[in-house]
Records
---
Amino acid sequence: MPDLIAIGEPLAEMAAESVGRLGDVDHFRSGWGGGTANFVLAAARLGGACGYVTRVGQDAFGTAFTAMLETHGVDATQVKVDADHHTGIYFVTYTEERKHRFDYVRRGSAASYLAGADIDPDYVAGARVLHASGISQAISRSCADAVGVAMALAREAGTTVSYDANVRPALGDRDTLRHNFEAAVALADVVFVSEEDSAYLYGGTPLEAVLDRIVGERPRFAVAKLGADGCLIKSDTGEHCRIPAWRVDAVDATGAGDAFSAGFVLSLLRDAELAKAGRYANAVGALTASGVGAIAPQPSHADVMTFMEEQSPFLR
């Protein structure tokens, strides 16, 4: 039985091999992505015993994704094959400044038909951590229900719930996305937000006030992912720490935040103190941003430890 399981939407990734708009790029490198898929694969590479809950299409992408999970040691027994719907796809293109743009082919995907009935209570209860994402809540009512059921089962069983806001305005209006977020916060133990998430959901409310609001509810930890500025962590006991980023030459930030979250959660499972968990998570995110794609550049635990020994934790 896995220690850490994630629920959500995998996506086949097509990353442009040259700068330009989608219609102008001739060659793409294939890979994999999707917020919770990025998370669970990053956790597995870092040495976690992981499993994934989703639906994939009865197509070449679905078959390849399931095989890829198994290759990386991720339990795929809860990956259901849907003969009526396709596996989602997204395209990544880049500007001259290496900023990325995402274009999705996900409407009607197999993962969007994930439902509460697909969640095995024993699978959730047997894990130490369940990880979910606001994206999974937003892609369909059915998938939102599955996330809610899984989180409620986890809370009932005493399984730690990790939740990443991952706000995507293209997937819903502000009120709906904020409702999804606050419903998840009420069931979560660890909540991740970015500055963009916070600003979209709560307007001009300062980020630190949003973190205070989160830990004033149920969660034990609220973690702000700040990219090149590191991270800010607050706990329900009043402990807080701001951890600076590691210096790297960032190439592609796709999936780096998801990898960061995986590093932080695994550190908590290994009983690390907050500051140590933040430094480790920052290193995981930095190394992931040093390569192209969401999953391909994810580091191993040994990679992270070597990097941390060789570098200094200062802002870029």
---
Amino acid sequence: MNKDESIRFATKYLEDLLSFFGVNVAIDSTIDDEVIQLSIPSTSMNSLLIGKDANNLRALQHIVSMALVSHNGEVTRVNVDVADYKRQRADRIAEQAEEWIREVRSTGTSKILNLNAADRRIVHKVAQDYSDITTHSEGQGRERQLHIEKKTD
């Protein structure tokens, strides 16, 4: 399946999957950096689709991604968002990252945070704008932690 077919397949697959839950909506789909972006509009089922700590959202992504793999899709990475939840969360994490960085800059004390992979990526990206700050992650799986530190000369 080529790139366009992969996008169409992922969109239809997610629409069909959601219809089993009584959510009959048109999915907006795009591709960005070899990741299929699937956007579910707001419905009365938002909280169910997102789930606690966005676990249901990640499960939907995984299901669609595995369907693409099993159908030999050219593109298999998928990002599913519900009612701009992820974008809004990313904005909040970026604002929080700015506060953490200001704190590290003013106190000189490193900050160690337990964040999921998506949130760690956002903090790493924000920190790139600061020449005196460095970030790195340590650990494995759910124990992985993000470190925000002042650069040493």
---
Amino acid sequence: MKCFPFPPSGSSDRLTSATAAFRRIERQLLTCFEASGFEEVHPPLVDDAFAFAFAGEELPKIIGPDGQILALRADFTGPIARMAASRYAKQENPLKLSYVGPVFRYRNGFREFYQAGVELFDAPPEEASFQVVQLALHALEALGLSPFVVLGSNAILHALLPHADETLRLALSRKSHSQLQLYCTTNKLPENIAAALHALLSLAGSADVLSRAEHMLPPPCKMPLLALKALISRLPQPCVGVDLALVRTPSYYNDLVFDVFVQGVPKAVAGGGRYDALTQRFGAQRVAVGAAFDLEALCSLEAPCPTQAPGPSGVS
């Protein structure tokens, strides 16, 4: 009889001290969400695979007794967009929903992540983006941290190349000039578009980057650049940066995207963005913006989780 002293790769035992820290963080985040008017919901752990078809992940799938293709929850955004399009379809005021729970993905092997987050539907786009980014900063400050947010815009990428695929997104997110050049050559992109895409790799730093971007990028990028400027003007300047190569890999993000960092963690502990078209997949039209927090990363600041193997960020 085999004895397995540790859980399978990609999972972890959360021991007593780590669990206590984890629950403190969870309670504090949910308290911040509630204070900002977000009400908690709980999508099922197993759902129709269609709800996660836009998460950019290979899903752990299950065949239901009636032949329905099911999947372990790969993210919260898809199921909550479904809920907003159906269960909350008649709610006319801005809809504010929050969540906490595990998600499961194949990313460098099977992984289990634990997330908390918020989704805001039907608020004016500029105000909604500000509210969610501000909430992400305030929630981390309430944990005693000093967050730094990096802003980008998928609308800039869409303005340059409306049908940008995952290969291009990966080249930009990795800041790989060689992969980007190969993509431009393989797809025979016009020289001006290729030059603009390469420019995105260098447009990172303080808010002053946006002034350089106005001179380096073509006119279709003007509106998303102005939107970023307007958002930055409302945020505390010392904790804001810009990275125009920041693209979140789920393709449903269409405008603002952001990552939030804190000292002591080498990856983003929170992130999110706008996904105005996602509810259309479920039969409704509700503009939306959301943010997710990686509880495992935040837990590592308080108490180590000794059996957790290192891996990529659990933010999607």
